[in-house]
Amino acid sequence: MLNIRPAKGSDRDAIWKVFQEVIAAGDTYPIDPDMSREDAFAYWFQTGARAFVTEQDGQIVGIYTLHPNHSGGGAHVANAAFMVPTSARGRGIGRAMGEHCLKEARRLGFRAMQFNFVVSTNESAVKLWQELGMKIVGTLPGAFRHPQKGYVDVYVMFRSFEHA
After folding, report:
1. 44 vs 27: CA distance, rounded Å
2. Residue 33: phi, psi to the nearest 5?
3. b/e for 31-40, b at 16 or more Cβ within 10 A?
4. How far is CA 68 from CA 13, 94, 108, 109, 153, in A?
5. CB-based burial of residue 53 (10 Å sphere; 0-12 exposed, 13-18 middle, 19+ buried)?
6. How far apart are CA 63 and CA 134, in angstroms?
7. Residue 54 contacts by C-beta under 8 Å, 6 or more apart in sequence?
8. pLDDT tens for residues 42-94?
9. CB count, 10 Å around CB of 98?
10. 3-class secondary structure for 43-104?
11. Alpha-carbon gap, residue 42 to 15, rounded angstroms
12. Are residues 55 and 5 in contact, defined by beta-carbon separation less than 8 angstroms?
């Protein structure tokens, strides 16, 4: 059974562990793998963000952060980032967090969700987001330097909540 709940201060060590593992791989996020814990938390818990953890059997098996994609005239569009450690992948955790996040974004009054930088070689994420109603609205050719595959495309994905 999965339990998705708002992150609290006592979760920070577990969040950092997941963040470090995912970023160190260098294959899904354009984030410096040497980012400090302080900078990682500034990103994850940025102004206006709602951070969540997913627990299974008392362990944190996934994390996500939800926040406005931009301020001012773009603040009605949400953005989110999701991370699942290697040991917990393939168990539906990403899907559960994605579904939770879309509901939470609507509940908070966002009119849409936009992912600005989905690495094309992250095929499981691309497929999941499409299954959850996200559409590829743009391709950034060669915008990500993958550690094994070289320069690969990045997708901008979008879903309106207006007709959902």
Report:
1. 18
2. -65, -15
3. beeebeeeeb
4. 25, 20, 10, 11, 24
5. buried
6. 20
7. 2, 3, 4, 60, 61, 62, 63, 64, 93, 96, 97
8. 999 998 999 999 999 999 999 999 999 999 999 999 999 999 999 999 999 99
9. 21
10. HHCCCCCEEEEEEECCEEEEEEEEEECCCHHHCCEEEEEEECCHHHCCCCHHHHHHHHHHHH
11. 13
12. yes
Residues 93/57, Cβ–Cβ less than 8 Å: no
| CA distances for 74 relative to 39, 112, 154, angstroms | 24, 10, 21
Residues 86-111: pLDDT tens digits? 999 999 999 999 999 999 999 999 99
Number of residues that this document lists for the chain: 164
pLDDT confidence of residue 106: 97
| CA separation for the pair 123, 109 (Å, rounded) | 29
Structure tokens at 54: 């997913």
Question: Residue type for 148, please?
Answer: Q
Collapsed DSSP state (helix, strand, coil) of residue 160: strand
- Structure tokens belonging to residue 1: 């059974």
Q: Report CA-CA distances (Å) from 64 to 37, 97, 143.
A: 16, 7, 23
In the numeric block, which tokens belong to residue 137? 């609205």
